[in-house]
Amino acid sequence: MPVAFNAGTYRRNDITLPRVDAIAAKDANGKLWLEITNVDPGQAVEVEATLTSFRAKSAAGETLTAPKVDSVNTFREPDTVAPKPVSVEIEGSKLKLHLAPKSITVISVQ
Fold this sequence. Notes:
Elements: E1 9-12, E2 15-18, E3 20-26, E4 32-38, E5 45-50, E6 59-64, E7 84-86, E8 89-91, E9 94-99, E10 103-109
Antiparallel strand pairs: 1-2, 3-4, 4-10, 5-9, 6-7, 6-10, 8-9
């Protein structure tokens, strides 16, 4: 599904990079899936997504982030990088959510 958004930017040393990236898809059952990445490793971002041609009844999702960009799971600490539930607020045709720094978030919308 087409997605239009203002990615915003952040600076890393002398390089300017996009802050947010997103994709959307609708499955065979009509459920809408949104994947939003906060590329910025240092700042959270508030996202407001306006849905056109889709009426949201409910939305739920998970986010994947970690303390550091290069964090890994180990036998001693197996949950350093683990998905966590994310809260999604629905206001009419808009979804509002908070994206942690350096995170990947997937939302299912019904």
